[in-house]
């Protein structure tokens, strides 16, 4: 039986028996569904006030998603047959509901501000390495409940979604600006080396913990977000940042391709957020968007000189803006991204699509 749900944008998505038993999410604010709301500290980024969530189906209230509604994790989950992303780890712990949720649906460990590197925005998020540690402790609780064999089977068939890196690039660019210097080739090589080492360690550790289907979302054109564009008098993208991200994405793709054969039974898909976003910019009007450079919710030039708050300026046509705030995609942009990772065109995933990955039988 196939049911249908209509999201706020009017787009109908089928909801059917999930393709996988559970989904586990690791990454940053593009995937966070509420973990940061439960972290202490004044500098912790949170999406816990209007106008965040204004278009979220069923409530229209902020939940910790850095979006006007659903985010990329939600739409990946929908394409897998779930209603939305699994709940945030911190939310489940607060409700004393980590088990059974971890077994029946999955868990999201994603945290806004997190990077591939522990040093990125340190102290104000759950870094990627710590997210994996939290999953390890979750697995132990799962095994205590249903036994190691059942957990192993569950995890080998589940979908693991990983998306991080943008914050590392923002931090790298900020550090260079503070030093009033341009990164040398040796700086870039060292930076890439640290990122790729940590990313490989993350994938390897998830594999050791039982993951066999891992969907990876690469780093998008970070030089084109409104918060970066507004620093340019003409509002143009920062080409240097984009080239840095593109170089990393190419290295990540080849690094994962070289790592996979060393992890027997691992299947993976790398989603090209960079290429897809660039294609979206090139066909803004054709895709029904009217703005590709400004935030729907914000203030000042490009809507990027102020945060998305209850006193911010809100655009009238929220589904026609690629960017919701000065960094994050709108609900509709997130939906189109997840759709491409599942249904193509094929150039936006490698070596297989998220759909093909989800449908694979575990060995």
From TrEMBL:
<comment type="similarity">
    <text>Belongs to the 'GDSL' lipolytic enzyme family.</text>
</comment>
<dbReference type="InterPro" id="IPR036514">
    <property type="entry name" value="SGNH_hydro_sf"/>
</dbReference>
<dbReference type="Pfam" id="PF00657">
    <property type="entry name" value="Lipase_GDSL"/>
</dbReference>
<dbReference type="InterPro" id="IPR051058">
    <property type="entry name" value="GDSL_Est/Lipase"/>
</dbReference>
<dbReference type="GO" id="GO:0016042">
    <property type="term" value="P:lipid catabolic process"/>
</dbReference>
<keyword id="KW-0442">Lipid degradation</keyword>
<dbReference type="InterPro" id="IPR035669">
    <property type="entry name" value="SGNH_plant_lipase-like"/>
</dbReference>
<keyword id="KW-0443">Lipid metabolism</keyword>
<protein>
    <recommendedName>
        <fullName>GDSL esterase/lipase</fullName>
    </recommendedName>
</protein>
<dbReference type="GO" id="GO:0016788">
    <property type="term" value="F:hydrolase activity, acting on ester bonds"/>
</dbReference>
<keyword id="KW-0378">Hydrolase</keyword>
<dbReference type="InterPro" id="IPR001087">
    <property type="entry name" value="GDSL"/>
</dbReference>
């Amino acid at each position: 039986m196939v049911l249908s749900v209509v999201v706020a944008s009017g787009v109908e998505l089928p909801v059917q028996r999930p393709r996988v038993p559970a989904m586990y999410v690791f990454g940053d604010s593009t995937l966070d569904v509420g973990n940061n709301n439960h972290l202490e500290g004044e500098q912790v980024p949170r999406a816990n006030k209007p106008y965040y969530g204004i278009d979220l189906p069923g409530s229209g209230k902020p939940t910790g998603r850095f979006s006007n509604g659903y985010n990329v994790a939600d739409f990946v989950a929908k394409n897998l047959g779930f209603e939305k992303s699994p709940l945030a780890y911190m939310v489940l712990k607060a409700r004393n509901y980590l088990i059974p949720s971890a077994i029946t649906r999955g868990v999201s460990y994603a945290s806004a501000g997190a990077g591939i590197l522990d040093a990125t925005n340190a102290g104000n998020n759950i870094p990627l390495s710590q997210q994996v540690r939290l999953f390890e402790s979750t697995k132990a609780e799962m095994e205590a409940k249903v036994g190691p064999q059942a957990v192993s089977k569950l995890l080998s068939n589940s979908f693991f979604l990983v998306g991080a890196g943008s914050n590392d690039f923002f931090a790298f660019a900020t550090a260079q600006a503070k030093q009033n210097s341009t990164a040398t080739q040796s700086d870039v090589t060292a930076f890439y080396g640290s990122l790729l080492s940590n990313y490989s360690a993350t994938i390897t550790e998830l594999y050791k913990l039982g993951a066999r289907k891992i969907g990876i979302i690469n780093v998008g054109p970070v030089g084109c977000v409104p918060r970066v564009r507004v620093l340019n008098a003409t509002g143009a993208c920062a080409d240097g940042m984009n080239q840095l991200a593109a170089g990393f994405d190419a290295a990540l793709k080849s690094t994962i391709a070289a790592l996979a054969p060393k992890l027997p039974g691992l299947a993976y898909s790398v989603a090209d957020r960079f290429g897809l976003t660039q294609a979206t910019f090139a066909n803004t009007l054709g895709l029904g968007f009217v703005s590709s450079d400004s935030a729907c919710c914000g203030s000042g030039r490009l809507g990027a000189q102020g945060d998305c708050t209850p006193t911010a300026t809100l655009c009238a046509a929220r589904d026609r803006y690629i960017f919701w705030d000065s960094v994050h995609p709108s609900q509709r942009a997130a939906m189109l991204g997840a759709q491409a990772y599942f249904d193509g065109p094929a150039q936006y995933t490698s070596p297989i699509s998220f759909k093909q990955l989800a449908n694979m039988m575990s060995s």
